[in-house]
Design brief:
six-stranded mixed beta sheet, four-stranded antiparallel beta sheet, 14 strands, binds iron/sulfur cluster, single chain
């Protein structure tokens, strides 16, 4: 029903589906493509789908993708330059024609991450045209997490597991169906078209309690306070060497992280030398070239790259965006091939500090 209404209102619908043993966001043709009856068992360097005894649609915590790839493309052209009849250079933005897109199954941590991406890409005076064009077309259907994975800690960062803000519609899945809440005018338009029966007080309360139980079930956490001073005063802590000895500098953590926004830009000149395309691709602070300045590298070893990642995410973001850059999704823990766990690293680095 929801898909039919969204499609009827002109939305291209993306949602979770099972692909290669993981739950990923793909175009949804029908509700039968949803990963019903699955939970995602996650642990450091571990992601496995297991049956959900209650056969729910959204009992899996999250997959490797958040909303990020839908707004900040992994690879895209930003502008092209060519010569006009007089031989003068002419610059032109490359803008894709983006249809309205509805994303179904968005988690609370992903909404929080999107708002951080907005703060970066839509900041005053530096609005990113490509990001903005995709962002404006989004309608977000969030889902409360009832089964957080062992890697989740969104309750400690204050970002979940119940969607708090930034959604157009929010669903809580109960045994008898869904409690649906609208969070915007766009969402209200969809809700009216769905023509649902009003939720009972018992159902609303059951949804609230389900969120509280999910929050209490989370076993990992980050300290809620600003870790800036604690981390920045330990830049020479021996733990950085220990984590560097394990880290492969593969960049998986930054690729799956819904808040990481580093990118590289490059030019692709045409063979005839008359035009050139300016491209942007995701980059990672774990890559060797990321710290390369003219003539030297400011982060020549893995120790300095891991330290850069963690201190930027949990310290520098407070200065840039007024909060930490971690929303507690746990993806960097599950998808790290050697199981490095940032909550464990933070605990080791800040041992002896006030909680
Ligand atoms: S740092 Fe890790 S847990 Fe935090 S938002 Fe990024 S991927 Fe999620
Ligand atoms: S922390 Fe893990 S995922 Fe991140 S670069 Fe190191 S090995 Fe790769």
């Amino acid at each position: 029903m929801l898909l039919r209404v969204l499609k009827g209102q002109g939305y291209r619908c993306l949602g979770p589906t099972l692909e290669s043993g993981a739950i990923v966001m793909r175009e949804l043709q029908s509700a039968s493509a949803l990963p019903r009856g699955l939970q995602a068992e996650q642990a450091p360097a571990h992601y496995r789908l297991i049956p959900d005894p209650q056969n729910r649609y959204f009992a899996w915590a999250n997959g490797p993708q958040a909303i990020k790839p839908q707004v900040f493309a992994a690879e895209e052209s930003l502008w092209r330059v060519g010569r006009d009849d007089q031989g003068k250079l002419q610059f032109e933005a490359v803008m894709a024609d983006i249809p309205p897109v509805a994303i179904i199954g968005v988690r609370a941590c992903d909404l929080a991450a999107l708002s951080l991406q907005d703060a970066h890409f839509l900041r005053e005076g530096r609005r990113d045209a490509q990001y903005a064009s995709r962002r404006e077309q989004l309608l977000l259907v969030a889902v409360q997490c009832a089964e957080p994975a062992a890697t989740c800690f969104c309750a400690s960062t204050g970002d979940g597991p119940t969607p708090l803000a930034g959604y157009d519609l929010s669903l809580a899945e109960l045994a008898e169906g869904f409690v649906v809440v609208a969070g915007s005018e766009k969402g209200r338009g969809v809700l009216v078209a769905l023509n649902l029966s009003p939720a009972t007080l018992q159902q609303i309360d059951a949804a609230r309690q389900q969120g509280e139980v999910a929050a209490a079930a989370q076993t990992r956490s980050l300290p809620a306070r600003n870790l800036r001073d604690a981390l920045m005063s330990r830049l020479e802590h021996p733990r950085w060497d220990e984590v560097a000895a394990r880290c492969l500098a593969c960049g998986n953590c930054t690729a799956v992280c819904p808040t990481c926004f580093c990118h590289a830009e490059s030019d692709e000149p045409a063979l005839d030398g008359q035009s050139s395309l300016h491209r942007r691709t995701w980059d990672s602070c774990f890559g060797e070239s990321h710290g390369h300045l003219h003539g030297f590298n400011v982060r020549p070893d893995i120790r300095s790259r891991y330290r850069q990642w963690l201190t930027h995410k949990l310290a520098g973001w407070h200065d840039q965006f007024g909060r930490s850059g971690c929303v507690g999704c746990g993806r960097c823990i599950a998808w790290c091939p050697v199981g490095i766990d940032l909550t464990e690293e933070v605990a080791a680095l800040t041992a002896g500090e006030q909680p």
